[in-house]
Amino acid sequence: FDAYCDHLLVRDAEGRLILADALTRASEEKPELVIDMATLTGAARVAVGPDLPALFARRDETAEALLRAGKINDDPCWRLPLHEAYGEWLKSDIADTNNAHANAFAGASVAALFLDKFVGKDIDWAHFDTFAWRPAGKPGRPKGGDALGLRAAWHMLRERFG
């Protein structure tokens, strides 16, 4: 939905505002790595379906470690780009940035670029945009809520930090 509120155009993307605040707060401690997971966009679900969370990462080595851990531990994920050129779509005439763009292109990547603005510049960051729901049961995976990407992240963290 679109609604005008105090001269700001707000799109149905309010959850990313809360996540942006959380990422800003997490960055204050200057951690080595931040990983967040959210049911951020329907665009990720459309792009990779219900079985794979979309993965965005600033650093290739972090993305590769998460992809490897996911593959080894039966929790595959799929990397999508943080394509900087799409950041143009977050420009605003009245604010520092928009939280959602007005076209239908690259919705998951643009949402991830929005979040990227709120993570400290020198911090390694990875973001899972996950559907978190299994529409049909599979062996060892019942129908319903599912923490897609969680095992991949946990195993990568254990490998990296012990």
Poorly predicted parts? 1-11
Lateral arrangement of strands in the main beta sheet? 3-6-4-5
The count of strands amounts to: 8
Structural Rg:
16 Å
**What is the overall number of helices?**
5
The class by helix and strand makeup works out as: alpha/beta
Assign an overall shape.
globular
Helix content: 25-40%
Which sequence of SSEs, written as H and E, runs from N to C?
EEHEHEHEHEEEH
The proportion of strand residues reads 15-25%
List the helices and strands and how they pair.
Elements: E1 2-5, E2 8-11, H1 14-28, E3 33-38, H2 42-48, E4 54-57, H3 60-72, E5 78-79, H4 107-116, E6 124-129, E7 133-134, E8 144-145, H5 150-161
Parallel strand pairs: 3-6, 4-5
Antiparallel strand pairs: 1-2, 4-6, 7-8
Helix pairs in contact: 1-4, 3-5
Describe, in plain words, how this protein is organized in 3D.
By secondary structure, the protein is an alpha/beta fold. The chain contains five helices and eight strands. It has helices at 14-28, 42-48, 60-72, 107-116, 150-161, and strands spanning 2-5, 8-11, 33-38, 54-57, 78-79, 124-129, 133-134, 144-145. The strands form three sheets. Strands 3-6-4-5 form a four-stranded mixed sheet, sandwiched between helices. Strands 1-2 form a two-stranded antiparallel ribbon. Strands 7-8 form a two-stranded antiparallel sheet. Helix 3 links the parallel strand 4 (54-57) and strand 5. Helix 1 runs parallel beside helix 4 (107-116) and helix 3 (60-72) packs across helix 5 (150-161). The longest helix is centred in the first third of the chain and has 15 residues, at 14-28. The protein is globular, with a radius of gyration of 16 Å. The termini are far apart. Residues 1-11 have low confidence and may be disordered.
